Amino acid sequence: MHSDRHFERRRALRGNAYTLEEFRSRYGLHQDVAESLFYRFGPSSIELDILMAAKKRVPSIHVITQEMGR
Questions:
Q1: What is the pLDDT of residue 8?
Q2: What confidence score (pLDDT) does residue 6 get?
């Protein structure tokens, strides 16, 4: 499912910006859930990571092992 919704940032970006696909794959989210969170909270990696921590969601093990290899 592809969304044509436009994202409009209302405040300064904190940290790096995730793309929708990066955010979805990092947390193993269904496309609809990822889109909803991404468009409501913005692309800020810091803010989305805090949000997901509050929801007790951790990055997928695949993403963690990729980051360790960098």
A1: 59
A2: 59
Q: pLDDT value at position 69?
A: 77
Helix, strand and coil content of the chain, in percent to the nearest 5, comes to 55, 5, 45
Q: HSE-up of 3 (CA within 13 Å, CB side)?
A: 14
Counted domains in the chain: 1
Range of the domain at 46: 20-68
Would you state the torsion angle of the CA atoms of residues 12, 33, 64, 11, taken in this order, to the nearest 10 degrees? Answer: 0
State the Cα–Cα distance between residues 70 and 65, nearest whole angstrom.
9
DSSP structural state of residue 3: -
Asked if residue 31 is part of any domain, the answer here is yes
- Parts of the chain with a pLDDT under 70: 1-11, 62, 64, 70
What is the chain's Cα-based Rg? 12
